[in-house]
């Protein structure tokens, strides 16, 4: 089981406990943490988050990402992680 620390995403700061079997987007939805998304396939970039700590497995995507950025729809936690909104 892994812990996802949500750092002020849409006003929520909390810790979620997950098995790491689903994407971060799916895990957030199951815990009522709402983020932007559209395609769920790594094509649109709507669900970009900042990975503040920890490690994820990130499946291929078409969106160019900067250091520390992940797509919630394509990333699955493999350790405890901390995520936040992307800094622009």
From TrEMBL:
Q: Does the keyword Iron apply?
A: yes
Recorded hits in Pfam families, A to Z, give:
Fer2
The cofactor required is:
[2Fe-2S] cluster
Tell me where the transmembrane regions lie.
none
Keyword field = 2Fe-2S, Electron transport, Iron, Iron-sulfur, Metal-binding, Transport
**InterPro entries per UniProt:** 2Fe-2S_ferredoxin-like_sf (IPR036010), 2Fe-2S_ferredoxin-type (IPR001041), 2Fe2S_fd_BS (IPR006058), Beta-grasp_dom_sf (IPR012675)
Q: Which molecular-function annotations from GO does this UniProt entry contain?
A: 2 iron, 2 sulfur cluster binding; metal ion binding
The 2Fe-2S ferredoxin-type domain is annotated at 1-88
Instruction: Spell out the family assignment given in the record's similarity comment.
Output: Belongs to the 2Fe2S plant-type ferredoxin family.
Q: What is this protein called?
A: Flavodoxin reductases (Ferredoxin-NADPH reductases) family 1
């Amino acid at each position: 089981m892994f812990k996802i620390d949500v750092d002020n995403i849409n006003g929520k700061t909390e810790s979620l406990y997950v098995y790491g079997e689903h994407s971060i987007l799916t895990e957030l939805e199951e815990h009522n943490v709402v983020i932007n998304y559209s395609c769920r396939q790594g094509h649109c970039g709507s669900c970009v988050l900042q990975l503040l700590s920890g490690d994820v497995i990130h499946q291929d995507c078409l969106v160019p990402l900067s250091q520390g950025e992940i797509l919630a729809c394509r990333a699955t936690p493999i350790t405890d992680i901390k995520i936040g909104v992307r800094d622009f």
